[in-house]
Design brief:
about 90 residues; about 25% helix; P-loop_NTPase
Length: about 90
């Protein structure tokens, strides 16, 4: 578990990251909890650094979107058709 800044390799005193479109993250799956709290600039950096073959899982509470500028974006994502799954989701804990 880490922060998005740390995962992307934030560079001190800049708005740039070590991982980006030219230097993608080395991962197969990325789970972002509290995704509704991520601003558009950070989400853009994260998606740019994500390998094309990676799976992205965004977790969040639908009702927490309202105060944030991304509310329309997240609502569109949540309303999009879901891909079929072969395994039912499981609750952890």
């Amino acid at each position: 578990m880490t922060t998005i800044h740390r995962l992307l390799g934030a560079r001190a005193d800049t708005r740039h990251f070590r991982h980006n479109a030219a230097n993608a993250l080395a991962l197969d799956v990325l789970v972002v909890d509290e995704a509704s709290m991520v601003d558009i600039e950070m989400m853009t950096a994260l998606l740019s650094a994500l390998p094309a073959s990676a799976k992205l899982v965004l977790l969040g509470i639908k009702t927490s979107w309202r105060p944030w500028k991304l509310a329309p974006c997240w609502a569109t994502c949540a309303a999009a058709p879901k891909p079929p799954t072969t395994n039912p989701p499981r609750r952890c804990g």
